[in-house]
Amino acid sequence: xxxxxxxxxxxxxxxxxxxxxxxxxxxxxxxxxxxxxxxxxxxxxxxxxxxxxxxxxxxxxxxxxxxxxxxxxxxxxxxxxxxxxxxxxxxxxxxxxxxxxxxxxxxxxxxxxxxxxxxxxxxxxxxx
Length: 128
Hints:
- The protein has helices at residues 20-31, 33-46, 102-116; strands at 8-12, 57-61, 64-69, 74-82, 86-95, 123-125.
- It is α+β, with helices and mostly antiparallel strands.
- It has one domain (8-122): RelE-like (YaeB-like fold).
- A six-stranded mixed beta sheet has the order 2-3-4-5-1-6.
- A hairpin with a 2-residue loop joins strand 2 and strand 3 (64-69).
- Helix 1 (20-31) packs across helix 2 (33-46).
- The longest helix is centred in the C-terminal third of the chain and has 15 residues, at 102-116.
């Protein structure tokens, strides 16, 4: 019998205690509840490793991946995998472009490096 490999979804928190990915999602919920619901459904699907591939997820370089929801604006959540079946959400993006900007990639890379250099307590678990 095969069992599903479940992953936990956690959010990056700065050393100052802010959670930029959660703030992004909170704003998205206010401005576009339908896209928010679609992104949250996508994050929930990522818990199952069978969804760790296109069209829901794809690599974007530097061991980072994107969860993308296409709508009037493209909404992306950049993340990476960490030991212990963890998916760490680093950065949220919303724009019309089909590509991720270098600036947004740099933000995600910097946050990943910051987190790896700190203790694992700087994460917020997804409670949904």
